[in-house]
Design brief:
The protein has 128 residues and is of the alpha+beta class. It is 52% helix and 20% strand. It is rod-shaped, with a radius of gyration of 33 Å.
């Protein structure tokens, strides 16, 4: 036995609630269904043979707008996680670029810093 909670829009009256319950309980494998008008959620207890998509399609066919609650939460989490990963990639790319530029500058100026060569000063200004 499994439990599925669906968000159901359009529960303005008790007749609509009764229609949701009737639509779902007529599906083979559905044990019972409880609809909460305040949260607009339908909690369905069903056997494993029943596909959640078939429950959703049955309610949509009856004229309700339906979506799984867990999919919403997962979608929001995945979106936030994807944004975090993109931000981390941007930071890593900037860090790598900064490291490469720093190494090139240090290597390029190493001869000057160690005193083997004067800086980019014209020869007539350099003191030898």
């Amino acid at each position: 036995m499994e439990t599925l909670t669906l968000k159901v829009s359009g529960l303005e009256s008790e007749e609509r609630v009764a229609l949701v319950e009737k639509t779902l309980t007529q599906i083979s494998g559905v044990k019972d269904c409880k609809v909460d008008t305040f949260t607009e959620e339908a909690t369905i207890h069903h056997s494993r043979k029943v596909a959640p998509e078939s429950l959703q399609k049955a309610l949509e066919k009856a004229g309700f707008l339906v979506y799984p609650i867990h999919d919403q939460v997962n979608a929001a989490f995945n979106s936030a996680e994807q944004q975090r990963r993109q931000a981390a990639r941007r930071v890593a790319a900037k860090l790598l670029l900064g490291a490469v530029v720093s190494v090139l500058l240090v290597v390029g100026h190493a001869r000057v810093l160690l005193g083997f060569e004067t800086a980019w000063i014209p020869g007539w200004l350099a003191c030898r």
